[in-house]
Amino acid sequence: xxxxxxxxxxxxxxxxxxxxxxxxxxxxxxxxxxxxxxxxxxxxxxxxxxxxxxxxxxxxxxxxxxxxxxxxxxxxxxxxxxxxxxxxxxxxxxxxxxxxxxxxxxxxxxxxxxxxxxxxxxxxxxxxxxxxxxxxxxxxxxxxxxxxxxxxxxxxxxxxxxxxxxxxxxxxxxxxxxxxxxxxxxxxxxxxxxxxxxxxxxxxxxxxxxxxxxxxxxxxxxxxxxxxxxxxxxxxxxxxxxxxxxxxxxxxxxxxxxxxxxxxxxxxxxxxxxxxxxxxxxxxxxxxxxxxxxxxxxxxxxxxxxxxxxxxxxxxxxxxxxxxxxxxxxxxxxxxxxxxxxxxxxxxxxxxxxxxxxxxxxxxxxx
Length: 367
Ligand SMILES: *[C@@H]1O[C@H](CO)[C@@H](O)[C@H](O)[C@H]1NC(C)=O
Ligand SMILES: *[C@@H]1O[C@H](CO)[C@@H](O)[C@H](O)[C@H]1NC(C)=O
Known about the structure:
- Keywords: Membrane, Transmembrane, Transmembrane helix.
- Residues 165-300 form the Methyltransferase domain.
- By secondary structure, the protein is an alpha/beta fold.
- It has 2 domains: 4-91, no CATH class; 125-363, 3-Layer(aba) Sandwich (Rossmann fold), CATH 3.40.50.
- The chain is 42% helix and 16% strand.
- The protein contains 13 helices and 10 strands.
- The chain has helices at 4-15, 21-59, 64-67, 73-92, 95-100, 103-109, 127-138, 173-178, 195-202, 238-241, 252-259, 275-284, 311-327; strands at residues 182-187, 205-210, 218-221, 224-227, 230-232, 249-251, 264-269, 291-299, 330-337, 356-363.
- The chain has an 8-stranded mixed beta sheet, with helices on both faces. Strands 5-6 form a two-stranded parallel ribbon.
- Helix 12 (275-284) links the parallel strand 7 and strand 8 (291-299).
- Helix 1 (4-15) runs antiparallel to helix 2 (21-59), helix 7 (127-138) packs parallel to helix 13 and helix 12 (275-284) packs across helix 13 (311-327).
- It is globular and about 130 Å long.
- The termini are far apart.
- Residues 1-19 and 44-106 have low confidence and may be disordered.
- The structure holds 2-acetamido-2-deoxy-beta-D-glucopyranose (2 copies).
- One 2-acetamido-2-deoxy-beta-D-glucopyranose binds at residues 337, 352.
């Protein structure tokens, strides 16, 4: 068709010289034919362009902007390929933007719903392998502490309580106690033993004891506060809480925010098996980095509140929780096997275990 048009116009020029009416008529007819051919040609090429654009759009949805650009087919395709590569790259590497983003942005994205489970202790899951791994883990010190608080039990059957905090000079706690900036949270369930809290209050700590059994909402005795609150791993449903007079159960992160406390130097928890879910909540909500030392009594005679699965699954879950602390640079410096409690592990007398251990960790990232 490209050749047909110039040939037609050349014929028109040659015939103009003769001048006869018949030939003029013939010329007009030829001209009309030429025009028609030209029209068809231009319409055809327009269709071809449209078809080309459609084809591009089909190949890469969302890139029709490039398909409309002028130019021959080959460069247009190259352009499209480039765009598609770009799209694929950004989809395959979602971390590229996180790395460059300010910490505020990446923090917002770290919402966690589950702790990371450690691999099974053995290729075929077995309770004894899981139990022995956990028991070995909780009886192995990861960091030595030269100066601990006084009144720790020297023998396993001592009446003294094993609440150990590390007062080594290289850690910040001892200095914060001297400058009376230390803050201790004590979670318990109406336990009468107050010796540890009193001695910490007398050594320069502001002590907050959470005890749902007291009557007034808050009591202050010197540096020792009592709050009629109990710590949970979830906030109560407001609809239910409204009907309960003494419903004052909150997550630790919520209490920290309510009290305007950004950090706690020591968190002591004696929660009769609620400690596992509370610890999980502190890890998932990233509250643990705000705590300097952890003193937890852990219970292993039953899975604990809202911990489900068969026995090996439960022990693996406990172990994974403690490993999460280690990953956050907490180091175990004190471990106490309580022989005054029943020697039971998941309802069995087995593994030479006690139902109750007291463990203390230092957060080595604590400033
Ligand atoms: C416990 O449950 C886990 C996961 O559901 C399973 O893989 C494992 O074999 C079970 N262990 C025993 C001892 O039944
Ligand atoms: C059982 O535990 C006790 C106290 O921790 C320890 O003295 C004893 O050696 C253990 N027995 C065995 C067989 O491991």
